[in-house]
Design goal:
158 residues; Arc Repressor Mutant, subunit A; three-stranded antiparallel beta sheet; globular; 64% helix; 8 helices; mainly alpha; single chain
Length: 158
Amino acid sequence: MIAVRSAPAALDELWSYVGRAYYNYKLLLERTLRDRGLEGTVRPGMGHILFTLFEGDGCILRDIAEKTRLSFPTITVVLQRMKAAGLVEMKRDPDDGRAVRVRLTPLGRSIEPRCWQVVKHLKEVLERGLSRREVTLAKRALARMVENMREDEEQSGG
């Protein structure tokens, strides 16, 4: 006889929790952006690049990739959205014609305080009821999962 896994057991697997966490996080982020008046400007997925530029404006794409651990295709898509929203401008580096420098526009720079408010709220919600040790363990586990997915993407040739 072949054992068939029931749906509830499958929904108790790690992949299911990660998926639910992703969708709930996205809803939380969208609501928080809306509450801070950023919903028409900032979209989920832009935060990694925005905070990289807040820390050091004028980065080249390679620097953004190293700091964010995002793939070049992902960065390109997000930067195009950010450019369309008026948050960044991209220009070839005058010293290295192959490199593209990304700079915040005045609008991009002006939203920094509200973006920090968003981060503060996300941190409060996500860490509520967790000890420092649990937060550290969660970050380690999630970092490993992200690395596993990146390695899988590289191995698949994507």
